[in-house]
Design a protein that fits this description.
Elements: H1 14-31, H2 35-45, H3 50-77, H4 87-102, H5 107-121, H6 126-141, H7 155-162, H8 167-173, H9 179-189, E1 195-199, H10 206-215, E2 221-223, E3 230-233, E4 250-252, H11 255-264
Helix pairs in contact: 1-2, 1-3, 1-4, 3-4, 4-5, 4-6, 5-6, 7-8
Length: about 270
């Protein structure tokens, strides 16, 4: 499996985002809580700047999406079962492994922050998280990450693990697909969803909206060539906090809904029933 690290720069207060992500993931794992609800509740108690909200959400939902594969890697680096590992250590290692594999964060920052998170809960475990993540870094640098061996007795489980899905998904859906189609579905299903915006031409030109959002840190946004006034973004964060939202410069709208309005070609004298 290849890993493309996203272009994400650590911010001066990134540790605050990691603390939010850490606390949220602990609750999700311990109490089977909903990540979104826990994170929003934490934000009400301890607000974060917009950039840090985006970073925290990337850590939370990225780690959750990749958890089965991250756990596979971590298990190869541990001397005992990951299931028996203290929850604090498991979550800190998952977060650190996710950053190392998928985000463009300096290695020293990832390891240092993982140690800080661990010792904030259980100081005696900091050496373990330090050792595991450093070993993971060495494997990454040598391009020697542990490989998931194909299992002829259950190839669907192997596919699910390679694309970070629980095995019950393979049991439920795998028999209904060919191997190639199931692989494509698994790969697509684990991608971060896009947000589609419709600019308000009475307020702002679409190009100007794109510039405004890009200047404030939304680098994963672009024009949709198929539709006028449409922008597509994979940026994390609260869209209601994006510049221009409260002023009515744009709204969130699915492309299919935007297409209906565009094809209707409503004129100034038209009446819409």
């Amino acid at each position: 499996m290849t890993h493309q690290r996203k272009s994400t720069q650590a911010q001066p207060t990134a540790s605050l985002a990691r603390q939010h992500a850490f606390e949220t993931l602990l609750r999700v794992e311990r109490d089977q809580a909903y990540a979104t609800r826990v994170f929003h509740a934490n934000l009400k108690r301890n607000p974060l700047p917009q950039r840090e909200i985006s970073f925290a959400m990337e850590l939370i939902f990225g780690t959750l999406r990749q958890a089965p594969y991250l756990d596979f890697l971590l298990q190869q680096l541990l001397s005992k079962s990951l299931k028996d590992t203290p929850l604090v250590l498991k979550i800190a290692m998952r977060l650190g492994a996710y950053e190392l594999l998928y985000l463009n964060t300096p290695t020293y920052a990832v390891i240092h922050q993982a140690i800080e998170l661990t010792q904030s809960k259980q100081k005696s475990l900091r050496g373990v998280v330090n050792g595991v993540l450093r070993n993971l870094v060495r494997l990454l640098e040598k391009n020697q990450l542990p490989q998931i061996e194909d299992n002829e007795s259950n190839p669907l489980h192997c596919l699910a693990l390679k694309y970070a899905h629980p095995t019950w998904v393979a049991d439920l859906l795998g028999p209904h697909f060919t191997a190639q189609n199931f692989t494509t579905w698994l790969e697509t299903n684990n991608q971060a969803p896009s947000i589609f915006l419709r600019s308000n031409p009475l307020k702002i030109q679409t190009d100007d909206l794109l510039t405004q959002l890009t200047k404030t840190g939304n680098n994963n946004i672009h024009l949709c060539p198929e539709l006028p006034n449409c922008l597509q973004s994979t940026h994390s964060g609260h869209v209601t906090q994006w510049p221009g939202f409260s002023e009515g410069n744009f709204s969130v709208q699915n492309p299919s809904a935007q297409l209906v309005a565009w094809m209707a070609d409503v004129q100034p004298s038209s009446h819409i029933l």
